[in-house]
């Protein structure tokens, strides 16, 4: 019986030394992972920031000459006019700005070109100091098309001004 008692005492001593020795590489890794996870969960978060408001747009009166610089080059916004209303289409810079398919309308009165579905230069006003295009000679279909374009711009973009002929202000 001595042998059994001696053996039980030996096994108990060996088991207690195994349980008290926590300094194993696996335990160190587990402790590190636990500490890192706890840190990530409870570290203070920076306060949420609100998006910046776009700068206020002042409603202005434009002439064809004063509208021309608003073509998206040199950091300028992109404006275009449709039937006397000037729209800020900067949000659609990929379409109306430099390199876009409608870039020739930027900074110009786009009414006739949009009505006729034409990107030709002859659709744009040549004389910047002359009278505005009265859209004479457009048929009902072209006027309906222009009205559709105007409604699209009205629903997507801000009106930032009106277009008048030089000297009308």
Describe the structure.
By secondary structure, this protein is α+β, with helices and mostly antiparallel strands. It is rod-shaped and about 120 Å long. A hairpin with a 2-residue loop joins β2 and β3. The protein folds into two domains: 41 residues, no CATH class; 104 residues, Flavocytochrome B2, Chain A, domain 1 (Roll), CATH 3.10.120. The chain has a four-stranded mixed beta sheet. Helices cover 40% and strands 10% of the residues.
Relative strand content: 5-15%
The run of helices and strands is HHEHEEHHHE
Strand order of the largest sheet: 1-4-3-2
> How far is the N terminus from the C terminus?
118 Å
Summarize the structure.
With 169 residues, this protein is of the alpha+beta class.
What brief labels describe this structure?
Flavocytochrome B2, Chain A, domain 1; 2 domains; four-stranded mixed β-sheet
Chart the SSEs and their pairings:
Layout: H1 2-20, H2 25-42, E1 60-62, H3 64-67, E2 79-82, E3 85-88, H4 93-96, H5 111-116, H6 140-156, E4 158-163
């Amino acid at each position: 019986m001595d042998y059994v008692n001696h053996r039980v005492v030996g096994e108990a001593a060996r088991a207690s030394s195994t349980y008290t020795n926590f300094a194993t590489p696996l335990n160190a890794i587990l402790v590190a992972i636990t500490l890192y996870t706890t840190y990530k969960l409870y570290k203070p978060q920076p306060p949420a920031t609100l998006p910046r408001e776009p700068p206020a747009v002042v409603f202005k009166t434009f002439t064809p000459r004063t509208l021309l610089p608003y073509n998206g080059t040199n950091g300028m916004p992109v404006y275009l006019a449709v039937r006397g209303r000037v729209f800020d289409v900067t949000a659609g810079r990929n379409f109306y700005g430099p390199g876009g398919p409608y870039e020739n309308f930027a900074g110009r009165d786009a009414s006739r070109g949009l009505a006729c579905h034409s990107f030709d230069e002859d659709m744009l006003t040549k004389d910047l100091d002359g009278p505005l295009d009265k859209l004479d000679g457009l048929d009902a279909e072209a006027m309906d098309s222009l009205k559709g374009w105007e409604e699209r711009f009205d629903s997507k973009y801000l009106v930032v001004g009106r277009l008048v002929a030089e000297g009308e202000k």
